[in-house]
Design goal:
The complex is a heterodimer. Chain A is an alpha+beta fold. Helices cover about 30% and strands about 40% of the residues of chain A. The relative contact order of chain A is 0.20. The mean pLDDT of chain A is about 95. Chain B has a 6-stranded parallel beta sheet, sandwiched between helices. In chain B, strand 12, helix 13 (about 280-285) and strand 13 (about 295-300) form a beta-alpha-beta unit. The longest helix of chain B is centred in the middle third of the chain and has 23 residues, at about 335-355. Chain B has 3 domains: about 1-170, Thiamin diphosphate (ThDP)-binding fold, Pyr/PP domains (Rossmann fold), CATH 3.40.50.970; about 190-355, Rossmann fold (3-Layer(aba) Sandwich); about 370-540, Rossmann fold (3-Layer(aba) Sandwich). Chain B is globular and about 70 Å long. Chain B is about 40% helix and about 15% strand. Chain B is built from 22 helices and 20 strands. Classes of the chains: A alpha+beta, B alpha/beta. The interface between A and B is medium-sized, with 19 and 17 residues.
């Protein structure tokens, strides 16, 4: 059966060990995690975990049930569909030799991202957007030489009904 | 009122009606023990912490209450892991209290420090580290609540030493409030109506009952349901006793060592109603071939059990007892006669299967292990509480001791944990001091927790250990015989202690039977002794458990004797 990407978002108790329960469930049962993003919500007692996984239909059903079974998981939703807003952010440290600086800045401009740090031989670029956009930007920057990269992994929110 | 953490802990145990605790003291729990002796709670001092958890497990299964054990930090805590994993696999409600080093030392690799909450996260239903004495009462309430509700399971509470001695004003916690934990007890009526219709239409139905029947106390409802609708019943190892083992509709156990007729019925049925089961691989064999002609109904309180291993036509999340009660209301007695007619052909086919390949063995000069179990069944009139170790002894117990009532068969099903039977028997005997409790054991697995004989002797618990002594790790040997060219790698146990002398060394009685003619007399003599007894039966060394379905094969492909 085909594996598809799923963006799961869950509200969990903001307590030590809760992330470990979630992650342990994935490793223990042989599911994979593509990316993971955790931070407290407006309620300091509650955190939001956004997790991207690849799974076929029976597996994702099982993953969701297993997650819901965790006592500290308050709410879980699959946000893979169009009803949700997805974003990812990255910091990309790219080699910026004098001859490629103009090209990098043009790309930055086209992708509506920004340069947040400049050194003698590098730029650090901050970019946010869909995972596809980030991948496209990274591909274009690759020829200049990417020194380091830090991606947050996807975050997502369900669109409120109008 | 101002109380210490230790006093609060005792208060919560008293509030939960805990009468018995199995445990082993140590540095991190010395203050808890100092409070424990001031209460009326009986503490059973085991000889190894694994024994404490298995005993609490056996106690929980025999009594229907939550089993409790108490151990120290570090090695005390790690020794509980196997027992916890076993209780987790079999959904047994226990609360494991572990001591921990003082909070200020946690993370410093202190003496006898381990991250037991981290270690047991995947094998508990839930676990807690109590960092603040003000949380203790609430955590204990939650622990008991989680252990016994929904799909039951083990809950571990790790309490640092300074939390035990810290003082606070004790406020009783009357209600448990958890944000999202809310098991579904009431089954969906629409789905149940569909099941009722399927039952009316079915010509070849089978009920497949599991441990959920016993945990939800639904055996009466199950029996009524089967009788009214004339549906034959099979069960997993965990479900034995959930339906009377002497009932004409009883098919025997299903699966790898299931009866011929149970496996055939499951494979050729047109409707399978799975209740309180999880379609474990030892039951299904090759899943694609399992009940392939049938519509499968699956009723279980744990949504993750449903569609985990087997695709089902009608999934129902809910309590087995509630679901069966509703089904019994939906299917009236008026349907009964018509249904019998419709199923006559099926029932007579099952009768044929029953006579083609019944469970059998040939008792000649050497004692057959099956014979011992059969004689035990006769002598105890089927009324003993039977615990088992794991392996051949367990399967023979399941095949040849017929359980008419729930909570009488106590075995490590899911985890398959050797060394379970003796401590579990101690737990069961604590719950029922006046009943006959027998551990059916092998010479291999009894040695995994043999030290608990001392516990049985100390507390005058008259548990009877029946060792089916074949000088082999029999089940693995059987696999080696069948699938590994008879290369008996490390399964020969010819250096074993003299179990009779060993029993005597512990202060128990020891008996031995070497000839078939002695079996009955030894069993009778052993059962008549008021204290703990080891009965050592020298049985056929290379006897196998049959039928046997090779791992991963369809369950119709049985190796018969």
């Amino acid at each position: 059966m085909n594996e598809e990407k799923h963006i799961l978002t869950m509200l969990v108790d903001n307590q030590p060990g809760v992330l470990s329960r979630v992650v342990g469930l994935f490793s223990g049962r042989g599911y994979n995690i593509e990316s993971l993003c955790v931070a407290p919500t407006i309620d300091p007692l509650v955190s939001r975990i956004t997790l991207v996984t690849k799974a076929n239909l029976p597996s994702i059903e099982q993953i969701e049930k297993q997650l819901r079974k965790l006592v500290n998981v308050i709410k879980l939703r699959d946000l893979s569909g169009k009803e949700a807003v997805h974003r990812e952010m990255a910091l990309i440290c790219v080699m910026a030799k004098p001859e490629s600086r103009a090209e990098i800045l043009r790309i930055v401009d086209i992708f509506r991202c920004k340069v947040v740090d400049i050194g003698r031989e590098h730029y650090i670029i901050e970019v946010s957007g869909s995972t596809d956009k980030l991948n496209a930007l990274i591909n274009l920057l690759k020829p200049m030489g990417i020194k380091k990269i830090a991606r947050t992994g996807a975050v997502a929110l369900f669109r409120e009904p109008n | 009122m101002e109380m210490t953490g230790g006093q609060i802990l005792m208060q919560t145990l008293v509030d939960e009606d805990v009468e018995t605790i199995f445990g082993f003291p140590g540095g991190a729990v010395i203050e808890i023990y100092d409070e424990l002796v001031k209460t009326d709670i009986q503490h059973v001092l085991v000889r190894h912490e694994q024994g404490a958890v298995h005993a609490a497990d056996g106690y929980a299964r025999a009594s229907g209450k939550v089993g409790v054990c108490l151990v120290t930090s570090g090695p005390g805590a790690t020794n509980t892991v196997t027992g916890i994993a076993s209780a987790n696999s079999d959904s047994i409600p226990i609360v494991v209290i572990t001591g921990q080093v003082p909070t200020q030392l946690i993370g410093n690799d202190a003496f006898q420090e381990v991250d037991i909450v981290g270690i047991t996260r995947p094998c508990t239903k839930h676990n807690y580290l109590v960092n603040d004495v003000n949380d203790l009462a609430g955590v204990m309430r939650e622990a008991f609540y989680l252990a016994r509700t929904g799909r039951p399971g083990p809950v571990l509470v790790d309490i640092p030493k300074n939390v035990v001695s810290a003082k606070t004003i004790y406020k009783p916690v009357s209600q448990v409030r958890l944000k999202s934990y809310n098991p579904t007890y009431s089954p969906n009526m629409k789905q149940l109506k569909k099941v009722a219709n399927l039952v009316r239409e079915a010509r070849r139905p089978v009920i497949f009952a599991g441990g959920g029947i016993i945990l939800s106390d639904a055996s009466r409802e199950l029996t009524a349901f089967a009788h009214k609708n004339h549906i034959p019943v099979t069960a997993s190892l965990m479900g034995l006793g959930g339906f009377p083992g002497t009932d004409p509709l009883w098919l025997g156990m299903i699966g790898m060592h299931g009866t011929y007729r149970a496996n055939m019925s499951a494979s050729y049925c047109d409707l399978m109603i799975g209740i309180g089961v999880r379609f474990d691989d030892r039951v299904t064999g090759k899943t694609d071939a399992f009940a392939e002609q049938a519509k499968i109904v699956h009723i279980d309180i744990d949504p993750t059990s449903i569609r985990k291993n087997i695709a089902v036509s009608i999934p129902i999340v809910g309590d087995c007892k509630k679901a069966l009660t509703r089904l019994n209301e939906l299917l009236t007695d008026e349907d009964s006669d018509a249904m019998l007619k419709q199923k006559e052909e099926w029932l007579s086919r099952i009768d044929e299967w029953k006579s083609t390949n019944p469970l059998a063995y040939d008792q000649k000069d050497v004692i057959k292990p099956q014979y011992v179990v059969e004689k035990l069944y006769e002598l105890t009139k089927g009324k003993a509480i039977i615990t088992t170790e794991v392996g051949q002894n367990q399967m023979w117990a399941a095949q040849y001791y017929h359980f008419d009532r729930p909570n009488n068969f106590i075995t490590s099903g899911g985890l398959g944990c050797m060394g379970f039977g003796l401590p579990a028997a101690i737990g069961a005997q604590m719950a029922h001091p006046d009943r006959m409790v027998v551990d059916i054991a092998g010479d291999g697995s009894i040695q995994m927790n043999i030290q608990e004989m001392a516990t049985a002797v100390q507390y005058k618990l008259p548990v009877k250990v029946v060792i089916l002594n074949n000088r082999f790790l029999g089940m693995v040997r059987q696999w080696q015989e069948l699938f590994y060219g008879k290369r008996y790698a490390s399964t020969c146990m010819d250096c074993a202690p003299d179990f009779v002398k060993l029993a005597e060394a512990y202060g128990a009685a020891g008996l031995r039977a070497e000839k078939p003619a002695d079996v009955e007399a030894v069993l009778a003599e052993g059962m008549a002794i008021p204290g703990p007894v080891i009965m050592d039966f020298t049985v056929e060394a290379e006897e196998g458990v049959y039928p046997m379905v090779p791992a991963g094969a369809p369950i119709t492909e049985m190796l018969l004797v």
